[in-house]
Request: fold
Amino acid sequence: MGKSRLEAFSDGVIAIIITIMVLELKVPHGTNLAALEPLWPVFFSYVLSFIYVGIYWNNHHHLIHTVSHVTGGALWGNLHLLFWLSLLPFVTGWVGENHFAALPLACYGLVLFMCSVAYFILASCLASHNAELKQALGKDRKGKLSTLLYAVGVALSFVQPWAGFAIYVGVAMLWFIPDRRFERH
Reply:
């Protein structure tokens, strides 16, 4: 099967995810800077989630650009990834509304962990039928490290929520630097 439908569908779902997240930002009741103060947790969680969606969109683009066709397994792997990404607006809102409390933050990390696992599954499905992608992915140390860090962040969120949050920010910063593996191949 050609890859264009998978790419177009994924781009549409990701655009909807971003739209849902931004719609959760409520307009403040007031005209001064003090009116914005109660909104900072919601806004900050939105910014982090927007960055994560952007990272996944960017890396998804590189994955799909590298392959010439997709299999049924890759279609299901892609849907698996989109499912977990689609939960980001919910956990983003929950974290922001509850000022980074332990359980919402742990659930946020769990969704990030599952996005990472789903991305790994999708990449594996695609690489199993594409030698160039398999070579570009290599051992995927960065991906495996990210998954491990998400798991640590989930556990830390229950003990020290800000430490868990710091890990989620750190992983985003790790991926914010463009992944050159695909460009080399």
About this structure: The chain is about 80% helix and 0% strand.
